[in-house]
Amino acid sequence: MFDVEGFIRFVRGLYGQPEGVIPLHAPVMGALEKARVAEAIDSTYVSSVGAFVNRFEEAVAAFVGVRHAVATVNGTAALHVALRVAGVQPGDLVVTQALTFVATANAITYCGAAPVFVDVEEETLGMDPRALEAWLRQHATVRQGVCVERGSGRPVRACVPMHTLGHPARIEAIAEVCAEWGLVLVEDAAEAIGSLRQGRHAGTFGRLGVFSFNGNKVITTGGGGVIVTDDEALARRARHLTTTAKRPHAWAFEHDEVGYNYRLPNLNAAFGVAQMERLTALLASKREVAGAYARAAQRDGWHFVHEPAGARSNYWLNALRLPDVAARDVFLRATNAAGVMTRPLWTPMHRLPMYADCRRDALEVTERLAGTVVNVPSSPLPGRGG
Ligand SMILES: *Cc1c(COP(=O)(O)O)cnc(C)c1O
């Protein structure tokens, strides 16, 4: 039997909070953010142009090690536009994982494409490169350099793995399968700022990668996202599409296609510039928290989800695995009743009504993880983060 009372005592001790609600993940913010936002107000540029947008993009690009970063209103918009510039068109199929936040599948759907759900791995919680390859072998073929579904002839255009809870997927193996089959790799690295695979930042293995800066992520801009790429033409097109496809002109409104109003406002970018200054300290504190969970798990026999071999995780949300669904539900009820916020993983996409009829494989690992993994309080420790 899992000792839920012992777990609650441990978390309250970790955060030095004997009573009150302990959130799943609280943003760290203060004087630094106030100062940067005040600067933005004083500059009179508060909306979707301004120096802080450039500064934020440069800071993110330098941190993850890419040439170009394009800031957007949120991570979902970033994914939508990344898929558009990756060439995803109405009628296409896009392979992704069923174990993800709904934004991944929604962004594919916004393009008029249909998601295909393949299984994840026990160890990484991310897309299983063998499941990707198996689905392609069974259902697809390459015709004149284009991967198409046999029978329907629909292009299988792209692949969107997700770095679950900040743990890097086996992205180098996924990239190999994508290269062999001609799929464009777009990484949903929304949860993975600060996560590395083989020393390289998550989100930089694909043609494009996407990060989210929603309020519950490692750092936040209130709401925000970024598209990263080393490809200058793709970055330019992403910038164009997110600014209503307006052609540069001193006064005229000329738009050369149907674009989106998706650029990050300068106010949010100012907040983000402050958050980037804290990022290294926040990541260090998140590792402290993960280390404390790992030690407690070893002592008390909990199944803690460690970073995968060959990877460094940002430990965005720490996770435990419980023996079965019943034990998980007992844990969720008791912890939340005691003010210690815990959450199950997302309902897998194929069990949501709008995605129930999509193509998929057996999703055995997805089902097992979805029924047994819980997220536990993971904020940086009080006083950390600059
Ligand atoms: C947070 C998140 C997104 C983007 O979410 P926004 O709230 O739109 O910034 C996309 N995919 C995953 C997996 C996420 O966790």
UniProtKB/TrEMBL annotation:
Signal peptide: none annotated. GO terms for molecular function: GDP-4-dehydro-6-deoxy-D-mannose-4-aminotransferase activity; pyridoxal phosphate binding. The modification N6-(pyridoxal phosphate)lysine is found at K217. Pathway: Bacterial outer membrane biogenesis; LPS O-antigen biosynthesis. It holds the Pfam family DegT_DnrJ_EryC1. One of its GO terms (biological process) is polysaccharide biosynthetic process. Its cofactor is pyridoxal 5'-phosphate. Gene3D superfamilies: Aspartate Aminotransferase, domain 1, Type I PLP-dependent aspartate aminotransferase-like (Major domain). Transmembrane segments: none annotated. It catalyses: GDP-alpha-D-perosamine + 2-oxoglutarate = GDP-4-dehydro-alpha-D-rhamnose + L-glutamate. Its EC number is 2.6.1.102. PANTHER family: BLR5990 PROTEIN, TRANSAMINASE. This is GDP-perosamine synthase. It comes from Tepidimonas sediminis.
